[in-house]
Write a structure and sequence with these properties.
alpha/beta; Methyltransferase, Cobalt-precorrin-4 Transmethylase, Domain 2; five-stranded mixed β-sheet; 17% strand; globular; binds S-adenosylmethionine
Length: 306
């Protein structure tokens, strides 16, 4: 039998945040909604079932993950249009933030279905507010590409974007423990060893840790550990405007060649050689001169001379 509060739930799609470690972070409203909806679309039904069992919630679940979200959306939207109340949850935190949910939301909006957020835990914002790094402007990126070259290119574009933005901003990444050292090496190469960073690990859990240091210090600290465990949010203070020098030096082009090449590669899915050729044409320079400039930039980055 539903309680009064639950039966008053309006029809619609409810995006329900769930804890990122500490079950005490579930909200009263989340519990009411999870009890009151017709069904719960879950990233992983087994994972969510543990949460539901803990809070003695018996609402039926259905899977909705990155591999079936589009197909599932059609089915759920039909139910929603008929007046159903459906909750969406991911394994942890806010659905749709580096998690499934975004597609379903846009389909629901297109179908004229009400979309109702039920706020709660989120790893990125929890890490940011306690990091001590600037919070007035931040850029949430989520996971970086796994491949080394693509990761480095993405960081280079982010560094340039931050410089162009004209204000110090904090970059917020999700990272896996087995990749954190490689990522820190790349951050050090692109932003410089003195860049302030925070590694926020195991938030809301027993072994919660904030490692606040320069990227060089943090990398050395973590490298000394037997094993790096747990879930991680990495925060990077992006350089002040003017700190990133132009590829051609003072008075030269503002954007580095590497950044422009990386952007062309990403936008057009072409290799570095082809990107250099196109950029050379665009700038009216020879390809070999541009290539030499690219090599000089890379040497400067390696030497930490930014
Ligand atoms: N939707 C979630 C949210 O709102 O935070 C994020 C989902 S994403 C698939 C999972 C990543 O979030 C983890 O790999 C880790 O980078 C970060 N994360 C999740 N829980 C965390 C925690 N308790 N402490 C630190 N990072 C966490």
């Amino acid at each position: 039998m539903e309680s009064g509060a639950e039966s008053r739930l309006a029809p619609g799609l409810y995006l329900v945040a769930t804890p990122i470690g500490n079950l005490g972070d579930i909200t009263l409203r989340a519990l009411n909604v999870l009890k009151g909806v017709d069904r719960i679309a879950c990233e992983d039904t087994r994972q969510t079932q543990k949460l539901l069992n803990h809070f003695q919630i018996e609402t039926p679940t259905i899977s909705c993950h990155e591999h079936n979200e589009r197909q599932r959306a059609a089915e759920l939207i039909a139910e929603l249009k008929a007046g159903a109340r459906i909750a969406v949850v991911s394994d942890a935190g806010m659905p749709g933030i580096s998690d499934p949910g975004g597609w379903l939301v846009s389909e629901a909006i297109t179908a004229g279905v009400a979309v109702i957020p039920i706020p709660g835990a989120n790893a990125a914002l929890s890490a940011l507010v306690a990091s001590g790094l600037p919070t007035s402007e931040f850029h949430f990126i989520g996971f970086l590409p796994e491949k080394a070259g693509a990761r480095r290119s993405r960081l280079e574009v982010l560094a340039e974007d931050a410089a162009i933005a004209g204000a110090t901003r904090t970059l917020v990444f999700y990272e896996a423990p087995h990749r954190i050292l490689d990522t820190l090496s790349d951050v050090e190469a692109v932003f410089g060893p003195e860049t302030r960073i925070v590694v926020a690990r195991e938030l809301t859990k027993i072994h919660e840790e904030f490692l606040r240091a320069t990227v060089g210090e943090a990398r050395r600290d973590l490298a000394q550990r037997d094993r790096i465990r747990g879930e991680i949010v990495l925060l990077v203070e992006a350089p002040q405007p003017g700190k990133v020098s132009g590829g051609a030096g003072e008075g030269g082009t503002f954007e580095k060649i590497a950044v422009r090449v990386a952007r062309l590669q990403a936008e057009l899915s072409i290799d570095e050689k082809e990107a250099l050729k196109r950029l050379a044409r665009e700038l009216g320079q020879s390809k070999s001169e541009l290539y030499r400039e690219l090599q000089r930039e890379r040497a400067r980055l390696k030497a930490g001379n930014r």
